[in-house]
Amino acid sequence: MSCGAVYAVCALSTTTLSFVLPAAECDFHLSSSDKGRLTATPLIGMCVGSYFWGNLADARGRRKAIIGALLLDALAAFLSSLMQSFPAFLACRFFSGFGIIGATGLIFPYFGDFLSLRHRDVMLCRLEVFWTFGTILLPGIAWLIIQDPRFNLTSETADFQYTSWRVFVAACGVPSLFVVLLLMPFPESPRYLLYANKTEQALQVLQKIFVVNTKLTEKDFPVESMLACDGEEEEVVTADTNGNETKTPMTWNQRWHSFWSRKKMLVTPPYIGMLVLCCFVDFGLMFSYYTLMMWFPDLFERFSQFSSLYPEVSAGVCEVSANVTRSELLGKQECPQVIDDKVYIHTLIVALSCIPTALWVGLTINMVGKKLMLVMMLISSGLAALGLNLVRSSLENLILSCVFEAIVSCTEAVLFCVICEIFPTKVAATAMAVTVMCGRVGAIVGNVVFGALVDQHCIVPIYMFGSLLITSGLLCTILPKSTRPERPH
């Protein structure tokens, strides 16, 4: 529950800007291209931060890195709410992305280190349910704060503005502080402590787990001492004068040779082909998913404005975007712009639609098979994305958005499970990091492209979304079976 709460906060922080796009439009005089830059900036921070937090977690521990990442995200949220210029706001959102990717990327291995091999896939997939809770919580917070004039803490003529959407941005940083308190009672990953050759601390953690689970005392724990054991690549086994085995760290030359041997393994057949394929899949997936996830509230707002400007006229997404440009809206409506209540309701419905899929994936992933599930989800989400060209009303757009979001929201988690299965243990983490990096690059490109084309040529990115997802699904059919031994029953 605590790790799930952290993951829900990651979803909340990652998607905060989806409601800032329409709400902050007047204050910063945002064009669609500016909105693309705004949604892309935290992603750039994520690309930079993923490497930093990964190294910090290896050096100082998973738990400490997660807590540090959450604190940085909260600080960036509070500071960004104070920024009065668009460039300064962008800079703060960069550090928000830099921070939250640490918690997003490390909560999976931290949680997984406490799980048995037999239950690991199912339990990790269940974290996706909490991501959905975070996306459900976001429109609720936005509706309570952004729409309430009492949260406009300064007058419209004041030099320093602190309007309701700024209060909303600051409020989205509070849950990060809350989940830090939830993590405080929990120990460091015992697997990390063994990897770091901190055997006494690892033993203490396992004793604590034993006491909680069995209600017995630490003296009843059947293990008296532990030996760091992560394979010959990490440690060298020797014996002391009494004949007891001990572990000594490898020399720098040995570690350097081990590092390059793993990298060399990853860039040679057959692993290089699998890595390129996984990178392409995650690039296309995040290009489509993250872009539409961030733009859904803005698209719903455009449909609302179109309905008020042209009542009883049916139109598709691209026609609405072409006719309801921001300059036209600002000419017909005074600032601050008020977001229609339907936008919050529709966004909430889209988030709720993800719950059945998240539960279904966790229950059936081992029965259906990861590879088949991945192929099915990619192709069906691609068809749903292409269907956005066919909708003719706000209701049709809402229904198809729910179908798309429900399918694609869990697809990356299934991809991560596949990566852990097809790559050997010693290169799986590197393969995962490279794949996630390509996915974030895809999200950056997708937001910039969509922001540049949504007003006049939105049919182009929609076809790109659908074709990338369907192509990725077809390519996944050539992925090999697991390289790991069968799991124990």
Q: How would you summarize the topology of this molecule?
A:
Blueprint: H1 2-14, H2 17-23, H3 25-28, H4 32-60, H5 62-82, H6 86-112, H7 120-146, H8 164-171, H9 174-183, H10 190-195, H11 199-214, E1 235-239, E2 245-249, H12 252-266, H13 271-309, H14 317-323, H15 326-332, H16 341-352, H17 354-368, H18 370-386, H19 394-408, H20 411-422, H21 425-453, H22 459-475
Antiparallel strand pairs: 1-2
Brief descriptors of the model:
489 residues; mainly alpha; Growth Hormone, Chain: A; 2 domains; 2 strands; transmembrane
The rounded distance between the terminal residues' Cα atoms is: 25 Å
Structural class of the secondary elements? mainly alpha
Shape type: globular
Low-confidence stretches: 231-247
Quickly give the CATH architecture of the largest domain. Answer: Up-down Bundle
- What is the C-alpha radius of gyration, as a whole number of Å? 24 Å
Number of helices: 22
CATH superfamily of the largest domain: MFS general substrate transporter like domains
Number of domains: 2
What's the count of strands?
2
CATH class of the largest domain: Mainly Alpha
Order of helices and strands: HHHHHHHHHHHEEHHHHHHHHHHH
The biggest beta sheet reads: 2 strands, antiparallel
Family: Belongs to the major facilitator superfamily.
Domain Major facilitator superfamily (MFS) profile: 1-484
Subcellular location: Membrane
Main location: membrane
